[in-house]
Amino acid sequence: MPFGQIEAIAHEGLRLAFERQAGAQPTFVWCGGFKSDMTGTKAQALAEWAKLRDQGFVRFDYSGHGQSDGAFTDGTIGAWAGDALGIIDQVTEGPLVLVGSSMGGWISLLASRARPQRIAGLLLIAPAADFTERLMWASFPPEVRREIEETGRWERPSAYDPEPYMITRQLIEDGRKHLLMDGPIPFAGPVRILQGGRDPDVPAAHAEALSKLIQSPDLRFDLIPDGDHRLSRPEDIDRLIGVANELADRLAS
After folding, report:
1. Which pLDDT score is estimated for 4?
2. Are 120 and 189 in contact (CB under 8 A)?
3. Is 139 marked active-site?
4. This prediction's pTM
5. Of these residues, 61, 83, 199, 236, which one is catalytic?
6. Is 36 designated active site?
7. pLDDT of residue 1
8. Is a pLDDT exceeding 70 seen at residue 196?
């Protein structure tokens, strides 16, 4: 299929939308963030990079996101990690580099644990591992926790969307089944982490703590002092593309 054409797979009774480009291995797979989709600035920049370089690339929308089926409020970390594995298993071949942004960083780590023979490298951008517990639940005041426990949901205002984010009890409870930061996280390939020093959503200290748990023979933590959560400024995109080039060259087969 020509790049830019939306395709879909059937997964868990839902249609998952994706775009792909055939090209050199490793194939880069974009795993987006919480309530984001595959049309964002960084995903688009990587798609254009892959086309110019003739690099294999896939980007997709989780269930309840973007052009995929399902309701966002039905989603959980386990379901979205399952979506990523569905894309990996049905759409890709050969070694992969997972590019995980925010929640996608957690999804990428879960996918690499589930498919260690397929994942050759990780490029994590403001990785929000364990965010439902460490960055949400731990920071919620008692009245918000009570509302979630009693009603099953809470509308969280968003700095990125005029509509609030619906935080559900099942999101929090399911997240606890997939926590990674309670011990070492082994990974055999190279890992690159890009993190903004002024990120209000995923504090730099959180990403740095995660980096210290990942047991990789080749890990680099790149702190961008004035960077925000999105890391979508031109200079941030240039840095992202530079790291993608490095990993593509290093892992070329």
Report:
1. 62
2. yes
3. no
4. 0.96
5. 199
6. no
7. 36
8. yes
